[in-house]
Design goal:
With 482 residues, the chain is of the alpha+beta class. Helix content is 58%, strand content 15%. Among the domains are: 25-217, Beta-Lactamase (2-Layer Sandwich), CATH 3.30.450.20; 342-482, Histidine kinase-like ATPase, C-terminal domain (Heat Shock Protein 90), CATH 3.30.565.10. The strands form two sheets. It has a five-stranded antiparallel β-sheet with strand order 2-1-5-4-3. Strands 6-7-8-10-9 form a five-stranded mixed β-sheet. Strand 7 and strand 8 (418-425) form a beta hairpin. The two termini are 35 Å apart. The structure holds adenosine-5'-triphosphate and magnesium ion.
Amino acid sequence: MISSAPLQSPLPHRHRTIKDRLFSVPLRFKIMGLAVGLIAMFGVITNIKVHTILNSNMNTILQEESISVARELSSHSKEYILINDLYGLTRLLRSTVENRQEIRYIFVINNDFRVLAHSFVNGFPADLLNQDGFSTLQEQTLPLITTEGVVWDSLSPLSDGSGAVRVGVSETLRKQQITTFLRSLVLHTMGGILIALVLSVLLTYIITSPIKQLLDATQALKQGNYDCIQTQFPQDEVGDLGLAFNDMLRQLQLAELDRQDKEKIRKEFLQRIISSQEQERKRVARELHDQTGQALTSIMVRLKMLGKAGQTELNQEIAALKETLLEEIGAIHHLALELRPSVLDDMGLAPALEHYKDQFQERHHIQTKFIAIGLEDKRADLCVETCIYRIIQESLTNVARHANASHVSVLLEWRNNQLRGIIEDDGDGFDPEKISEERLGLYGMEERARLLGGTLKIDSEPGEGTLISFNLPVKCITECYE
Ligand SMILES: Nc1ncnc2c1ncn2[C@@H]1O[C@H](COP(=O)(O)OP(=O)(O)OP(=O)(O)O)[C@@H](O)[C@H]1O
Ligand SMILES: [Mg+2]
């Protein structure tokens, strides 16, 4: 039996591992986590990588910029020094510094390391000349650690060897630019995460909503609700699953209806069998009371009166009594035959039906033919034999009661593990579609055939006689449907 208790984790809560916890996370969170996690991981890795590359490249770029500006100015400065235009040289240096924000300072020195011109507005800082590493006038670039960060200081000698130009390029501006760039990259990554979150929520809804409907329908199915899922399924694997599920629901619905139908028929049949048994008992009791009881009482009265009768009257009365007794014996015999012929148990179906046919013909004056083929040396299971006997008995009773027939024939044939029977009369016929549900005979015949795994067919039309045919597999069954 399937338990209706809610599904529970096989492990107690405190013993659940991380893997169990991950597996028990709802599907929508798994999809959202996957999308957001991937974007976030990609964003963080990109940011770190870009940060590292930009920082390492920045130093090289600043060094190159510093030395290239120093070289350029060293070639220009020579002319100013030649004509001793130190004022013009100073203007050149200041305008260069003003035009390029990353350049913090420029100054020109002579062979004696004396400052000839500089870009400082508020005076030249003396300690700049005392920096280690710039003791000779050879081209070089060194990092100076200052209060505002690292300054890449390059020295480029004048071509005639009369001095040199020093240029200081600060990394502060570049660092600010890198920070701004990285900040915008982080913002873009967060935007990407947000978009991924929205998209994954949408995607999750699209994926999980049909699954949720399937889940709800499964729960409803457990409560006996076979209604199909009324939704437009997507055209993907989940949609195929939904369609297959709906198909299954329809099949289950049909099977359930069929089961309920059969159950109803079974109950009705049981009730009808019980009521027909009661009616049969009433009929037997009435027949015993009205006919046999009356006849025996009259025989008793007539026997009492025999003492007073003369010889001739005595002989006549004895003859009359004999006749009455014979009639009663015939009636009791008929009653017994209708109830259950012992010849059916003792000798089998064909002799029992042969005997019944004789009785029927004699009683109702209808020409009756009975042909049995293939039953001579065989006995079917007693249940099957009884069923067939009852079907033929009911068919003949109907002929006598309703058909107004002059001829009736019964054919019974055993071939290939099938017993086939045909009962045909030339009577009034009837419309099988218009049979009242109250009637038990034809219905009982069909039910008997069906319960034995066979079929029964009624062919009749008003004015065309009636043909009843049945086909039963000859197999042993344990229950007996009399
Ligand atoms: N061979 C037949 N010829 C003509 N009419 C028939 C024949 N067999 C059945 N019928 C019609 O079919 C009806 C239903 O028959 P059925 O045997 O089911 O019920 P019944 O004989 O009326 O009552 P019971 O339930 O006692 O058998 C009959 O009332 C009769 O009108
Ligand atoms: Mg009947």
